[in-house]
Request: fold
Amino acid sequence: MSTTAKQRSDPLVPLPGLLAEMGVPVEDVLTGTGLAPEDLTPDQFFDLSTILAILDNAVLRTGREDLGLLLGARHTTAVLGPLSRVVRASPTLGEALLDLSSMQGRNTSAATTYLRRQGEDVFFGYGVHDPRLAVSAVTQDIVLAILNRIIAELTRGAVRPREFLSMRPVPRNPARWSGLGAVVRFGEPETGFFLSSMDMAFPLATADRQLHDRALEELLSQPELLAAKWTHRTRRALRALLLEGCSGMPEVALRLGVGPRSLRRALAREGTSFEEVRDAVRLAIARDLL
Reply:
């Protein structure tokens, strides 16, 4: 399997329609990416660097710094691909987000979502762990907008995030971000949002345990995006744990459900070490912060 960072194409699918409304030819935005308008269909996997270039081009061509918000607002849970069936059939919002977090590696090989309890609230975060990628502001925006839409759909508008954090710099017109429905704090060390414990326990009207288990089994039967799965899993775990001040082998191994020696051997078989993986994730976080 390829070692390039891959990402599901679905977030880009509404882009041609949005650009048309703004009077910008989608061909101009795709220049230099090797893609044509007819390639922007669901259930494809592109190099994430290509997707990031397309989003940056779209902001440049339209002059809209809030393009990520506009694009993300056009999505439903279908943007998750087969994972959407698992998420929608989960019993509660909290279990849906846990499924999303644990299975997001089926949609991208370079980023992760994670849950962390913080006081009385729960933080749901997103971050890229591949140090080869430079993630711009538009990516942070589209992530928040898509996740906001997913929560609204799952709970039929009954639950909204209490507060948003974003790694993006303060925009020229912050008022446009008020459409997310809660305060957005910019220039933060991570991107995500807060929910209360009560929010997490919210029962989903679409819950179906049998459908959930069947959809999860089908999802797990599909091939993984990367052959070096332990390197990938370690990166995903570290992306969240480093922000909690935890970066040791014991903490990461515990998060992955294996012993430290087993994890070290598994990484060695894939031609790397825990220290090399940790340094790579630290570099990815530093690039995001810059």
The mean pLDDT is 90. The CA atoms of residues 215 and 278 lie 33 Å apart.
